[in-house]
Predict the 3D structure of the following.
Amino acid sequence: MKKRTRTRSVRRGGFTLIEVLLVLAILGVIAAMVVPNLLGTQKKAYIKTTKQSISSLEAAANKYAVEHDGELPVSLQSLLQSEDPAIPPDLDEIPTDAWGTPLVYEYNPGDPKPIITSYGPNKQQGGGDDITNLDDDQNGSQQL
């Protein structure tokens, strides 16, 4: 009797084009889910950092008021310059928000506190993304 010998098909190692495309598609789906979450987290961190900068500027204005018989500074220039050379100024430079835009300081004598504003991510006044020191006083935070 004759023996039949089977020849094994030799398969080379590696991935087929379909397998590679499938892996790329899965990675694309995962990236589509993760990237928006990361961007949202970064935006929240920028807002928190900006609120801290606003609070620091408000604290500097209050310190100035204590040193000047309860009078808040009318402008940021008052915080950048000291009337007495022996006393350092309250600020070294105009503070900026997390997006690199200078904070806006407004005070009208007679008001209980100054209004300190960041124009937010769009860097323009208005647009619904401005952040002020009054946001937390109105029992709500800024809407984005």
